[in-house]
Design goal:
This protein is mainly alpha-helical and 210 residues long. The protein folds into 2 domains: 99 residues, 3-Layer(aba) Sandwich (Rossmann fold); 89 residues. The chain is built from 9 helices and 3 strands. α3 crosses α5. The protein starts with 5 loop residues before the first helix and ends in a 13-residue tail after the last helix. It comes from Pseudorhodoplanes sinuspersici. InterPro entries: AB_hydrolase_fold (IPR029058), Lipase_secreted (IPR005152).
């Protein structure tokens, strides 16, 4: 599976723990601004530079993991710049600057078709979208209110679905954008993790059931 972000990878790690590390006890999963509803992200983000970077990273990752040909969905003369984006880890504002330069050369539109409606890319989107089954452990989702890539409404909807499926979920919203949420929420996340290893009851923002 090609993970799109560290938050996305954290959710999948929590979901798959029992299959790849059954000897371990999962006490919690913390994720900052995870890529959750991938189909919605592909649809909503294509008009923004950050969203185009997300799209390029996802498609490039899946082409390498699944062996799909990028030139089937990306214009051949734009592949060079998509690879520029793939060479950056998107962990700093310098990486974002390099990506923004690549997007300028791409000049907005670089897709031949909509990945959500084009096989095998639509299958990859479904396969890599975090599931909403009852979680195996408490979950903390840190979300920036100013995030324009992973918008708060998507995180809230995902949390609500997990809550309805019996999960113990806390959404921590802060004044942050996509790049700053991990750093700004770090102390709170560490406190939350310490609480899980201390076997304390996990806090939740799920609505109580009467």
């Amino acid at each position: 599976m090609g993970a799109l972000t560290r938050g996305h990878a954290a959710l999948w790690s929590g979901d798959l723990t029992a299959s790849y590390a059954p000897e371990l006890k999962l006490v919690g999963v913390a994720a900052a601004a995870p890529a959750i509803e991938l189909a919605s992200l592909f649809k909503d983000d294509r008009s923004t530079s950050a969203g185009q970077v997300f799209t390029a990273l996802a498609l490039l990752s899946w082409s390498r993991v699944y062996g799909a040909e990028l030139d089937a969905i990306i214009d051949a003369d734009k592949l060079r710049y998509v690879n520029w984006i793939g060479d950056e880890c998107l962990t700093s504002r310098f990486d974002l600057f390099i990506d923004s330069m690549a997007i300028r050369f791409i000049k907005k539109q670089f897709l031949k078709s909509n990945p959500v409606k084009t096989e095998p890319w639509s299958e990859f989107i479904v396969r890599n979208t975090p599931v909403r089954r009852p979680p195996n452990a408490p979950i903390l989702l840190a979300q920036g209110r100013d995030d324009r890539l992973i918008i708060p409404a998507l995180t809230q909807d995902f949390a609500k679905a997990l809550c309805q499926n019996g999960g113990v979920v806390q959404v921590l919203e802060m004044k942050a954008d996509h790049l700053s949420i991990a750093q700004l929420s770090a102390n709170s996340v560490i406190d939350w993790i310490v609480g899980r290893f201390a076997d304390k009851p996990a806090p939740t923002t799920c609505a109580s059931k009467k």
